[in-house]
Amino acid sequence: MTATRRLAAILAADVAGYSRLMGEDEEGTLAALKAIRRELADPKIKEHRGRIVKTTGDGLLLEFASVVDAVRSARNGRTKCRCAARSPHRTPHGN
Known about the structure:
Layout: E1 9-14, H1 18-24, H2 26-47, E2 50-56, E3 59-64, H3 67-86
Antiparallel strand pairs: 1-3, 2-3
Helix pairs in contact: 1-2, 2-3
């Protein structure tokens, strides 16, 4: 039997300060995390031809066929998440 091999770029991402945020406002943090994932992260992962291998609370393990796609997805997602976190309209519940 011949093994099939493929190259992949693996990206691990998590939320900085997640434990502190959960301690301050668990319900709001979970709502905000779900919104960020739905509105920002998932579309960027798809746009850059990635797939979610595993989720771990505040973390994601992602696979991309290309290192370039992985880096672009991470860079674009991080920039958008920073902008969302700094939005003056953001409430503790992610609204």
